[in-house]
Design brief:
The chain has about 120 residues and is mainly beta. It contains one helix and eleven strands, in the order βββββββββαββ. The strands form two sheets. Strands 2, 4, 5, 6, 9, 10 and 11 form a seven-stranded mixed β-sheet that branches. A four-stranded antiparallel β-sheet has the order 1-3-8-7, with no helix packed on it. Strand 7 and strand 8 form a beta hairpin. It is globular and about 40 Å long.
Length: about 120
Amino acid sequence: QVQLVESGGGLVQAGGSLRLSCAASGRTFSTYAMGWFRQPPGKEREFVAAIGWAISNSYYADSVKGRFTISRDNAKNTVYLQMNSLKPDDTAVYYCAGDRDLSRLRVGFYDYWGQGTQVTVSS
């Protein structure tokens, strides 16, 4: 079992930055691919970024490429999402998710997810 708890959301002006954190419990964290998804108001949940257990491979949605960076610290059982140059369209609830299969995670299938953290970007 893996439990995920997100933190770091908040209100920020357009152009600003935030760093989200996702703390995971469980001894098998390092064997899981991890990702971030978001759900804007009134819309479906969408993929944002994912990183493999080996850290060297990461993937991003086109809408955030070049602005967001996903990283992980397996020693701390934590995955991060550094968000720069934020736009009002980035406003959403951001969820952390984990799955043993990175390919599944990239297309929106995952075994574990957190409760979400709100990110609001004002114009």
